[in-house]
Write a structure and sequence with these properties.
By secondary structure, the protein is α/β, with parallel strands linked by helices. The chain is 42% helix and 12% strand.
Length: 208
């Protein structure tokens, strides 16, 4: 298991280990699944829930994603909740509707303070469908919408929640994205596999 090996290498360092998904159930006979307890045992601190590919390819519902969010927190993991629209939904101007629905599913199962920055993060997935990217202003619009949804429930929690852009952060657009007031960072995909790209993104993040 790569996570276990990487966890050993990172032990004692400032770098935290995260997983890409987990089982929505914390115990029981679920052959092939990886539980929150197992991830914690191999050294994970974070776990992604609701990634676009999990929602689309594996048909994970909003309710399943919400259960995964709660399962992660129950074992001391920090869940990174992914929300966002598909390209057709964006073209139909349903982005806010879709994001609000996905977020509401989690807030119904977990309290709004479960999204405070030390306990969770939000990743807004925007414009990363079939090579289509949104510009920084479009990304900011949805990030501001998410924060407003949280503020409507708790004005103190909203500014503490880290909202990360997860569309397509690259060296060429990182500085512009991170300059937006409601974009607190990025969940980097393919660019993280290219050292020069990733270093440039880190430099842009540190500048903001």
């Amino acid at each position: 298991m790569y996570l276990q090996d990487v966890g050993r290498l990172l032990r004692g360092s400032a770098i935290a280990l995260g997983a890409q998904t987990l089982c929505a159930d914390t115990q029981g006979a679920f052959t092939g699944e990886v539980s929150a307890a197992m991830l914690k045992d191999v050294g994970c601190s974070y776990v992604i829930v609701g990634h676009s590919e999990r929602r689309l390819l594996y048909r994970e519902s909003d309710q399943t994603v919400a259960r995964k969010f709660v399962a992660a927190q129950s074992k001391g993991l920090v869940p990174i909740l992914c929300v966002g629209e598909q390209l057709a939904e964006r073209e139909a101007e349903r982005t806010h509707e879709v994001v609000a629905r996905q977020l509401e599913a989690v807030l119904k199962l977990a309290s709004v303070d479960s999204l405070a920055s030390r306990r969770a993060g939000l990743r807004a997935r925007l414009g990363d469908w079939h090579g289509s990217q949104c510009n920084p202003e479009q990304a900011q619009d949805v990030h501001a919408f998410i924060r407003a949804q949280l503020a409507a429930r708790d004005a103190k929690i909203a500014p503490l929640t880290r909202i990360l852009y997860g569309g397509s952060v690259k060296a060429v657009n990182a500085a512009e994205l991170f300059a937006m007031p409601d974009i607190d960072g990025g969940l980097i995909g393919g660019a993280s596999l290219k050292a020069h790209e990733f270093i440039a993104i880190l430099s842009a993040a540190r500048a903001h």
